[in-house]
């Protein structure tokens, strides 16, 4: 995906509920270049922690196309797509800088890469594992690239060691 043509504009298409894989497959089959940034999400389901991929922008997929050729009308009739986002009669392109920045943050399959390096004292949110959604402070980063967090659990301070790819910076 990193070898996209910067001259071709990208457009956002609204997806039908839970149809991102169907739409992505059907658009690619028609010859459209698509970009669907994904992130890993951990949820507790039936007492177990389940990690799965989910769209970074639920309900939307990006499609590269030439608006002048009229091929954008085929996108609107693609199975899994509701419509291209428009301001007026024709679809509105997404700023190229936004798509380029998103692509730099993703691998070739569209999976969001871990954020930049963490520093001691950073506030982070645990994104995967049994401590998902808990806010913690980085206390130490060891030589094996494990990060030691200090978090509030059951009224006390607890140290937990996690992998950096299980964290994201707190807003």
How is this structure best described in words?
Helix content is 14%, strand content 37%. With 171 residues, the protein is mainly beta. The protein has 2 domains: 10-104, 2-Layer Sandwich (Alpha-Beta Plaits); 123-169, SH3 type barrels (Roll). The strands form 3 sheets. Strands 1, 2, 5, 6 and 7 form a 5-stranded antiparallel beta sheet that branches. Strands 11-10-9-8-12 form a 5-stranded antiparallel beta sheet, with no helix packed on it. A two-stranded antiparallel ribbon has the order 3-4.
Give a short synopsis of this structure.
Helix content is 14%, strand content 37%.
Distance between the termini: 28 Å
Strand content: 35-45%
State the low-pLDDT regions, or none.
none
Number of discrete helical segments: 3
The SSE order reads EHEEEEHEEHEEEEE
CATH hierarchy: architecture of the largest domain: 2-Layer Sandwich
Portion in helices: 10-25%
Q: Could you say which overall geometry the principal axes of the C-alpha atoms support?
A: elongated
Mean pLDDT: 86
């Amino acid at each position: 995906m990193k070898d996209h043509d910067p001259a071709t504009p990208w457009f956002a298409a609204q997806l039908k509920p839970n149809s991102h894989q169907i739409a992505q497959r059907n658009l690619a089959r028609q010859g459209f270049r698509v970009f669907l940034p994904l992130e890993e999400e951990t949820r507790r389901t039936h007492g177990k922690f389940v990690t799965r991929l989910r769209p970074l922008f639920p309900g939307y997929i990006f499609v590269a196309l030439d608006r002048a050729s009229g091929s954008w009308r085929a996108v609107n009739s693609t199975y899994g797509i509701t419509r291209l986002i428009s301001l007026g009669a024709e679809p509105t392109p997404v700023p190229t800088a936004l798509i380029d920045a998103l692509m730099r943050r993703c691998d070739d399959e569209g999976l969001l890469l871990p954020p930049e390096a963490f520093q001691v004292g950073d506030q982070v949110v645990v994104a995967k594992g049994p401590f998902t959604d808990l806010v913690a402070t980085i206390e130490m980063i060891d030589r094996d690239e494990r990060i030691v967090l200090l978090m509030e659990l059951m009224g006390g301070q607890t140290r937990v060691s996690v992998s950096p790819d299980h964290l994201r910076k707190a807003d």
